[in-house]
Amino acid sequence: MSEVYFSNSNLLIRSMEVDDAKIIYDTYLSYGWHPSLETYDNYYKEQEENKRKVFIAEYEGKVSGLCTLVLNPTEGPWAGMGYPEIVDLTVFFHVHNKGIGNKLLDVVEREAAKVADIVYLAVGVHSGYGAAQRKYVKRGYIPDGSGVWYQGKQLEQYAPCCNDDDLLLFMSKKI
Fold first, then answer.
1. Which letter does DSSP use for residue 75 in this model?
2. pTM for the whole structure
3. Which of 23, 93, 102, 171 is the Cys-Cys partner for 141 at CB 3.0 to 4.6 Å?
4. The pLDDT value given to residue 151
5. Domains observed in the chain
């Protein structure tokens, strides 16, 4: 039985169920992305092990997005410091601009506040992440000062990199 975090007439935010992994995977495939089903199966496994909270948004009864909260991250500038990390906020294309992303973040931040007074996240720096970058700033997230990270490592000045999904800026927020 999944835990319900939020519910109104159109939107339900609940914990992940085992069948959600395939729905997420299939949706991403339909976008031409190259997801790994194992990633989403692992999200469910980590949820069951209390390592990660997984929040699934259902809009009008259909899975329409997700967000996860890693409770004790082992990577990034805040690793091992006891601050949770928001990972993989995604709202499916067909339900953009309905407030689902903001409601997911409201719920995730509320849950993060139960374990720490700061939450952090990483956002891609290429233009495909422009909407997310703006959303996070409007919600009070600020760059953490650690600079840009690439493929899990802090990028040194003048180091080569590729402007792909692995080029990240970490941001934090006091909650």
1. S
2. 0.94
3. 171
4. 95
5. 4-124 (3.40.630.30)
